[in-house]
Each structure stands twice: as C-alpha cells, then as structure tokens.
Amino acid sequence: MELNLNMPPLVRYKIPIIGHTYSYLFNCEEFLKQCKKEYGGIYSLYIWGRVITIVGKEYTQEVLSKDDAFSFTAAFHKKFPSDLLLKGLSDTSIAKLLKEHVFCKLNFYSERMQKSLYSATQKYIDIGDYDESKVFNNMHHLITRIISNTIANIFIGEEESQYEEIITTFAEFTSDSVIFLMVPPILDFIYPGLQNYINRIIIKSGLYNPTIKHQAILIKHIKNQACKPNVLFLFIPLRTFAGLLKEVHIMEQYGFDSNNVNYSSLADKMGALIFVSVRTTSRNCTNALIDLASRPEYMQELYEEQLVVHKEADKNGILPFEALNEMKKLDSFIRESFRLTGFIAGLQHSVLKDYTFSNGLQVPNGHSVEIYFDDIHQDELLQGPNPKSFEPFRHVDANVPASKIGKNFILFGGGKHACPGRHFAINEIKFFMHNAILKYNFRTESGKIEEKKRIGPLTIPSSCGIIFEKRVK
Ligand code: HEM
Fold this sequence. Notes:
heme; binds protoporphyrin IX containing FE; single chain; membrane; 21 helices; 5-stranded mixed β-sheet
C-alpha cells in the first residue's frame, strides 16, 4: 500500500493542479537546484497532474542498474502510443540482434560508414567553388539527412539508400512519430493519462497516423531489397539474402520462410531501429559541430590531430577502423559536447514494484522516477574543476573515451540497458567530424558561442548560422 510507504518528500507548491509544472518547464535549472538544496538528493514534484520523483546522483545507479524495479521502456510506453505507432519498439530481440550481429563487428561496417558519410556530407554541405564560403542555417536538418544516408546504407542496403524517399523516411520517421509527445499533455491535468487515451483514439480511428506513409515506404524498399539476391539485407549483417535465408535461427525469430516474408513486421522493426538511432545520433553530432564552430580556438589543434590520423587513410581517403583510437582529442571533444548537452533531467523510468532506495525512501509500483542529469554532469566531484565550463580536452588526461558510461556519465543510460548503439553512434560522429575538420573551416555566423534551444528540461541543437569555408591545403 502506497500509504504505508516512506515516500520521498513532495516539494511544496502554491498553485493547485498546475503544481510544479510551470517551474519545471520554464525555469528547470534553477528550480531543481533549489529543490535539491532544500530537500536533498531525492524528492517528488507534481507535474502534469502526477507526482514524479527526481533522483539525484547518489541514487541514479540504483535506477539504472535494477531493471527488475525500474524500466525506461515501460515509462515511454505509458506516455506514448508505441503499440500503435512504433510496434517494433517493444521487440526486445532488436537490441539482442544488434548486439550479436552488428555492434560486435563494427569494423565490418567502418568502410561503408565512411564512404556514405563522406559522400552525403559533400552532397548536403555543398559550398560550391574552391574559395567560396557559405552560411548554413539549419545544421540539425542537414546532419539528420547525412546521418540518415549512413544508417540507411548500413541497415537497408546500399541500393535502396540511393532513393530520396527512403532518406526522408529515415530522417523524418522519429520527428513525425513523436508529434504526439510534442503536444503538452494538458488533458493530464484533468485526469492523468487522458492525453495518451485521446491520442490513441485519434490514431485508432484513422483520423491521424503520422507513421503510415513511412511504413509504406519501408515495406516497398524492404521488398525491393529482398527480391534481389546478393545484396546486404536489412539490418541483418549477412552479405546476401540467400545467406540470410540459410540462417534458420534468424528466420525463425522473424517468422521468415522463403515463401512467406512478413514485410509489415520487418518494417516495424526497421521503424524501431530508426527511432533509436537516427535522431539521437544526429542531435549529438550537430551539437558537436556547433560546439566546435562556437569555439574556433580549438580548431587548429583538432585539425593537426586529424592530419596525423589521416596519414593512415588509403588512396580513397578511407581510414582503417583502428584509426578511431588515434582521434583522442576529437573523442574528448565529443564527450565534452555530450556531457554539456544541456539535459537537466530526463530518462524517466516506471517503477515496476515497490522499491526501497538505499537511504530508506520508498517508491510504489506504478510510480515514475526521473534522473537529475545536472546533478551528475555538472558536479565538481564527478567532473573535476569548473564542471560548467566547456573544456574540450579534459577527458584526454583522464583517459576516458566518449563511450564510457558510469557514475559520472549517463547520456547513454547505464546498467544492463545502457545504449548498445553508443559505439556505433560515436564512430559515426568521429568519422563525420574528422572529415569536416579536414575539409572545412567552420565558425558561427554570430562569432559567439551558440547555446542549444531549451525545451523544458531538454534541449535541441541551435539553428544558428554556421559559416563553412573550404580549407586551403
Ligand atoms: C548519440 C546517440 C545515442 C544516444 C545519446 C543514445 C541514448 C540511449 C539511451 C539513453 C538509451 C536508454 C538506456 C537505458 O534504458 O538506460 C538507449 C537505448 C538504446 N539504444 Fe541508444 N542512443 C544513441 C544511439 C543509438 C544508436 C545509433 C543505436 C542503434 C544503431 C541505438 C540503439 C539503442 C537500443 C537498441 C537501445 C535499447 C537498449 C535496451 O533496452 O536494452 N542507440 N540509447
């Protein structure tokens, strides 16, 4: 019984119904700092008609590591009609399949990744003649298309990724699907969960379903791909479709038999894969690029490192996989960009059973907890001196790579469900940045440090102008 539990303190609030919603949305940084000062490392807020618990650095690892008590996926399903829009997302075999067949042989994808990244960069960051410079106003949009080219190339195949409609689907699937999350859940003030209930009616009645068009495009191209022998098929990293059909255990997992392929189910899984990979990578890649454009004083040092690394490239400019380990300064820069991504709180988890934290406070089954990112990513003890300042090479001396998760770095979550795609994403961002630094000089049009755009406790990349100039060799 919830009544008998020793729950975290509920922060005082003045306005009934609204509770802390306004402060959380519009003054999150200061508000959570103040709450921590008054209530300590774990307390509850009343937001959008529900009580949620904010968990600070001392208890974060408990949330991330105890997957029998806390679930990120369950919290997402509660807020979002994923069973209608993202059917593949609840398929736990995707993470397993990716781990077993893709993430453990990333070197296999390194060449494809570089080739498609470099050609897409040339296509979308096209600055014309040799000595021209050009301003690009929405890097997030361009980088999403560049990343979509690469992810589509790897997961749906070289040939299908040549179609603009497939790139559009990869680039827009996520933003179209989460449209329902973008609408503030005002109806939840009337009754918690009402907003999601109404969203479900809208989708089920056929009034509006933003993913249908993408589903049709994915099915069409998966079919195209499946009809051609000797091509890399889908996200199953076997070289040939014939090879795929021989892999009985994968076929069984996917309900495959050579005469009866369930394309709709494959498109669902592809949708889930796009959802977890494209926007996350694009957002962080854009942030890294703008963070560097904002601090041109670091460009030369990074350029010199990339020049040395590039000596290992073959005649087509393709680096060996191992060269990624040599990009130490770039890796540190990227980790610093991740660390200061501006997320104040997030990674909401649902509580799966009554749980007692190590300090004795308890949360009931069905409750939600959210992690206080700032308490970790901006903490002096965890990050070293000047945790708020962007010090691009602070991780070089510490010898901590961008992919290392732990008590002081939770952008990729943690525990058993920590993002398995982080190495893939970081490799992609490193190859992209390596190429961009070698080819261009870039800086913000304003000449200032451009901050991310804040949306409540989260951020999206700035849409500021970035000036690109070709480097004179
Ligand atoms: C910079 C880019 C990325 C970020 C910031 C990111 C972040 C995250 C986070 C926070 C989680 C939840 C972890 C948790 O529950 O504790 C997650 C899960 C996941 N991510 Fe990523 N991700 C990124 C890129 C990718 C890519 C490129 C892929 C695939 C190619 C991917 C595949 C997954 C999968 C399959 C899961 C679910 C893991 C599970 O439930 O066991 N991610 N990611």
